[in-house]
Design goal:
The chain contains 15 helices and six strands. The protein has one domain (3-240). By secondary structure, it is mainly alpha-helical.
Length: 339
Amino acid sequence: MNIFFFALIIILVNILIFINIHKIKSLIKIVDDPKNELRKIHKKPISSIGGVWLMFNFLIMYLISYNFFNINIFNEPIHNLKNFTSLWLGLSSLFIIGVYDDKYKIKTSLKSILLFFSIISVLLLDDDLILNTIHLSFMDISYSMGSLAFPFTLLSMLLFINAVNLYDGIDLQLGLYSLSVIGILIFLELTIYFLLPVLIFLIFFLILNHRKKIFLGDNGSYVLGFFFSYLFIKSYNSQIINYADEIFLIMILPGFDMLRIFFVRTVHKQNPFSPDQNHIHHLLLNDKKNNILQVNIITLFLGIFPFVISQMLQNNVIALFFFLIAYSFVILFRKKLIR
């Protein structure tokens, strides 16, 4: 089976899901109800089964690749994805946590503990996911993490997963960011077979998300956050991505915005994990004006801008500098940007 037939199967399955989404929503009752939550922008309950749909695509990829494919990814054949225990454990455990949170609203402390032990289990199963050495483009030496390798990897994955989850604040935003990440990974020559199920899902999902028919939910954002962090680390350890700061530039917008929010909340003596409307997408909505399309254009630009600059100038430090300027400009002059 070649990529054409693989893509055709995935597309046909997603078309069936797309045209039957109302039946699926009524069958799988996971709903984001804005009642009594002031931070919510939408006014009516909306289904949050994006992660369910995405996990179904992963299941199809597993079944097809198990039987037909024999191509290389991370120096292993894709038909051996059944051996990628860490991948499937991470996807399934974070998906379950997300579904339960969407359904019953887990306390932040309990949710953090569940995520913590889920990622620990993943790392214990897969030594190739450990960041043992840090290569920086602007340094002539590499840093060996030694005994800090495991906790550093754990912290990095947890921070990125939470950053992705927090970044899912308005329609289209996380979906478009995810599309840009896939585009970057394809540019870096990661195999399209592995990315195709997510890519096709995102295209159909964004149509429904734009129509306010469906959300990713925590079950979707956690799965995407883990999937991308897994790909980043595997690509880095397989030298598909050469430098750690290159990964940092790809994930900088949701990560940096999360750190800014945590800092602001801490300064104001608030719980760093307490929900609010101070994320960049909320600030750009300019009070009561609803310019979601414009906001998404700006945040999409901020998301891909540093990587593009780094590729053009071959200098990640300058790219980071330009990002900080652009991000600060958007925050300071946001009311003039959105009309």
